């Protein structure tokens, strides 16, 4: 079991701070449920008639939808946040590796299944609500009365909307895992810039930014309806061969074909249900991200020893609780003079812990040292075993007979156990890879270029700058940012408030830590820029080859001109770096501020 997931001993400062965080999160959880119910009610009412919001069925339906789909998503996110930590192993830095990693991950499949089931339940709830409001003649009623058969048959529109809701839910989960940084790795979605903003402002801004972007998945609905229209006859013919034409379960599984099929009407109903589904999903995830990661004031003033509790949270190995502790420390250092005085005046080793600022400096240095750690050097190959001196002893029957009796009687040493043979599947896979690589190497370079361009390799199999930045900086960016803020404000405030001089002995060690963190940040950025430049160079080379081929064929080469600013990988890298620019700013600002403030005392 990972040490970061192990619960601290009861009664320890870390356990006390965890209990304080959970206590402070209870009002936020209630607000999440209230806001989620309001959004669910509005989204569900928007799919019905204009007078639907005034009916009690909509209130009951939204409450049922909240209890089944929304609460399940919130519990899944909470479990992942508390019981999962970022992996210590190197992360995937190419798109193909990321996809392969998600395919092999069990929790990714659990997320897809949960979102698909939630999508199906949203579609079912919309259909049930239509039946409650308009009766069994509603367009999405699960069963429909067919006059020609004098019986109820399953509604094809209901089945189509149910299938679309399930598919869109699964597609949303896949897109969330692929596009949201840290969604798969258990990284708490802390935002370093959230320390100076209010919770209401951040929540409204996040909803306005995320919900319209999620509605872009509505383009999948016409595509799904079109695909269903193309395979509709073959699908239901196969279903009738399995179920039977005259069986008693036929009307519950296969719709009646006496009703004309209207793909346009089906698409309109599916669009409304899908819009409700996407708004519900995105609002739920956004509310959770904002309310669970916004900086807390977890340590109440009435606590007997608030400083010891905060220090326990700073040294908590779990990233969720230590990040909240660092954010609270940064708030103390910036806006709480009384708490700063208590920290500076704690110069005795109380309760079996070191002095307060010594513990704070250790925690902040640990957070800064964890930012962009250097990659481990590749392991050197073991030296070859020395060759045996002299010829090997012969083991023929004549030599054994000529040997003394004790040598003949000595039992032979058992041979060293050979390593287990690899499974047949892995051996077959290696053989196929060897054959494929051999065939690829025998192809001419022109054929390789046509079959698999370098641009395609750079897009899917080469390291991507954005994934490279996420793999090296995402896990610890918030903690490093808040640690730099706390150190800067504490050191600057100590010049006027630290009457015992508890801060000054630690300054010579803090400055190199900040400088090294800044250097590692710049090294990661330079490496990502080099990747982007290399990929864009291959893209420009591909464009030149296309232009040359057109000119050789007698076509107009100017028709294939490309803008000189064509650098998609560089633009992607710059967009990804915007999420980490605040960390570089805070680290460099803290370094500059501390050095300038301490310069008069070291001249």
From TrEMBL:
<keyword id="KW-0472">Membrane</keyword>
<dbReference type="GO" id="GO:0005816">
    <property type="term" value="C:spindle pole body"/>
</dbReference>
<dbReference type="GO" id="GO:0015031">
    <property type="term" value="P:protein transport"/>
</dbReference>
<comment type="similarity">
    <text>Belongs to the NDC1 family.</text>
</comment>
<keyword id="KW-0811">Translocation</keyword>
<dbReference type="GO" id="GO:0070762">
    <property type="term" value="C:nuclear pore transmembrane ring"/>
</dbReference>
<dbReference type="GO" id="GO:0051028">
    <property type="term" value="P:mRNA transport"/>
</dbReference>
<feature type="region of interest" description="Disordered">
    <location>
        <begin position="372"/>
        <end position="399"/>
    </location>
</feature>
<dbReference type="GO" id="GO:0030674">
    <property type="term" value="F:protein-macromolecule adaptor activity"/>
</dbReference>
<feature type="transmembrane region" description="Helical">
    <location>
        <begin position="157"/>
        <end position="179"/>
    </location>
</feature>
<keyword id="KW-0906">Nuclear pore complex</keyword>
<keyword id="KW-0812">Transmembrane</keyword>
<dbReference type="GO" id="GO:0031965">
    <property type="term" value="C:nuclear membrane"/>
</dbReference>
<keyword id="KW-1133">Transmembrane helix</keyword>
<feature type="transmembrane region" description="Helical">
    <location>
        <begin position="112"/>
        <end position="137"/>
    </location>
</feature>
<feature type="compositionally biased region" description="Pro residues">
    <location>
        <begin position="373"/>
        <end position="394"/>
    </location>
</feature>
<dbReference type="InterPro" id="IPR019049">
    <property type="entry name" value="Nucleoporin_prot_Ndc1/Nup"/>
</dbReference>
<feature type="transmembrane region" description="Helical">
    <location>
        <begin position="32"/>
        <end position="51"/>
    </location>
</feature>
<keyword id="KW-0813">Transport</keyword>
<protein>
    <recommendedName>
        <fullName>Nucleoporin protein Ndc1-Nup</fullName>
    </recommendedName>
</protein>
<keyword id="KW-0509">mRNA transport</keyword>
<keyword id="KW-0653">Protein transport</keyword>
<feature type="transmembrane region" description="Helical">
    <location>
        <begin position="57"/>
        <end position="76"/>
    </location>
</feature>
<keyword id="KW-0539">Nucleus</keyword>
<dbReference type="GO" id="GO:0006999">
    <property type="term" value="P:nuclear pore organization"/>
</dbReference>
<dbReference type="Pfam" id="PF09531">
    <property type="entry name" value="Ndc1_Nup"/>
</dbReference>
<dbReference type="GO" id="GO:0070631">
    <property type="term" value="P:spindle pole body localization"/>
</dbReference>
<feature type="transmembrane region" description="Helical">
    <location>
        <begin position="214"/>
        <end position="231"/>
    </location>
</feature>
